[in-house]
Design brief:
Blueprint (H helix, E strand, L loop, with lengths): L1 H6 L6 H17 L3 H22 L8 H13 L3 H16 L6 H17 L3 H17 L7 H16 L3 H15 L7 H15 L6 H18 L9 H5 L8
Amino acid sequence: KSYEIRSHDVPFNPRESAWAAENAANGIASLNEFDEAIRWQERARDHWLEWSNKRSVLRVTYPAMIKKSIAMILAWAGQSKRARTICDQAIQQLDSTEPYNWATAAYTYFALGTIDRFDQKLESAEAHFMQAQNLWVKGDQLRTHPFNAACMYKMGCMTLDQGKLEAAVKHLRDAMALTSMRKTTLLAEHARCVFKLSEALEQEPRDEKEASRLREEAERLLRQRDPDAKEPGLESTYDALIDIQWR
């Protein structure tokens, strides 16, 4: 709707339409319509370049924020090679720009961690999710924001995938503590944390009862969020309900 309103501006403002298209793309990707979301991100890129070309005779590019959004959607669309190239471009752009945009950098390293995980580069993914959180905190961003919880959750996933059970449980409990504060608005995020913590605790015999309780709680929350959800024993079922920006 925002994009439709901007498209009728007189004179047409491609910069404002770029941001509206980027927001639309993230919303569409959160509904798992990745091909359509990519088209919207490319529209955002093209609008920005149109605006930039009118303002400068120099070679122009488009913002790192749009780059990281395109990269994140490409990763979930199964195009990790292209996603990594764009992500690397975004990081280079951020590193050469003053003032440094801590929040966009954090999201970009989170996207890079996501790409790493799809490519089974687990140590690199863990490092990038940790860097994303460090940048988020260093930039004085809200610690209770779902993105911060997502960084903790992803570090938990990465350490669990590498067999580092104690670290995984700590990260997942930390993430769950944050999502539990906003369960009404972060129901899917909270359910995902509860589910993954149950998976971690299942690997420790003395924690079987808590693991079972948490698994039941995760499935209850999942049904509350999406009564038609299938496969409650898969991480991907929960992922599909999460905002693409911190999926």
